[in-house]
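user:
I keep going back and forth on a fold encoding question. Separate attempts, laid side by side, tell us more than any discussion would. Would you put together a sequence-and-structure record for a protein of your own picking? Write it directly below this note and I will take it from there.

assistant:
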Amino acid sequence: MKQTTNSILMIRPVAFRMNEQTAVNNYYQKVLDGLLPATVNAKAQQEFDAFVEKLTAAGVDVTVVDDTLNPDTPDSIFPNNWISFHENGDVALYPMFAENRRHERREDILDILEDKGFVINNIVDYTSAEEDGFFLEGTGSLLLDRANAKAYCALSPRADEELFIEFCEDFDYAPVIFEAFQTVDSERKLIYHTNVMMCLGETFAVICADCIDDKKERKMVLDNLKENGKEIILITEAQMNNFAGNMLEIRGANDKRYLVMSAAAHQSLTPKQIEQLEKHAEILSSSLDTIEACGGGSARCMMAEIFLPRN
């Protein structure tokens, strides 16, 4: 199994704003005072378009689908939370914590991908878990080491342990389960998505190990990464708060490896960390300030990797 892909799906926002339904446990979201919703959306669109342009220029195959005005989906710019694509032609659909995020799931997106020549053999649908109040938010909650058949998951209100284990059984992944925390108003609170505190590349892993408060769990996670020969690049909680954990390794033209992140994440890294990362992939960063502030998500959340076979 490949760990990286050249193809990604991105959703261009039409009514992006701070989602009041996700702010209850996403402590990265901020209200941008004095900005009209239309201004916030226009800024988010500018950031989105500039980001797509950079990816395309690097030779990444980006499928951009426009969001719709109805129903109201302020977070549609983060498609990796509701869908994942797999090499065997499987597509997984995930149960979402926020009710208004459930409307982001669109069948027509699958039609668009099939029209592009991607092959979809089977849909594995976990969404009925929403009715019982259990959630697992795609590759926000699941960090997939596809090459080594391991899945990492920081449990939270948006990542249920039993659902995670069910996913691992269905897709043949060995589960690596832990809890990760961040300091919010001097209290330790669960981090809402695994992909804000760690990133898995082919030959490296970026992780805020300080977030894993339980020493045994921390050692277990780091041992799992070392076992698979990953160079571990540690980041601090302050860097994580600048979305330095929310990165994704993808492939551009001629199979060149890129590590994609926001400008804020890039700026938060030390010269030594940059040197460590650049041994593995070229850094590609883009300014996502409005999207990060209002959405509480960053570069990795905006890209749903497509591993489907092609006709």
Observations:
- The chain is about 25% helix and 25% strand.
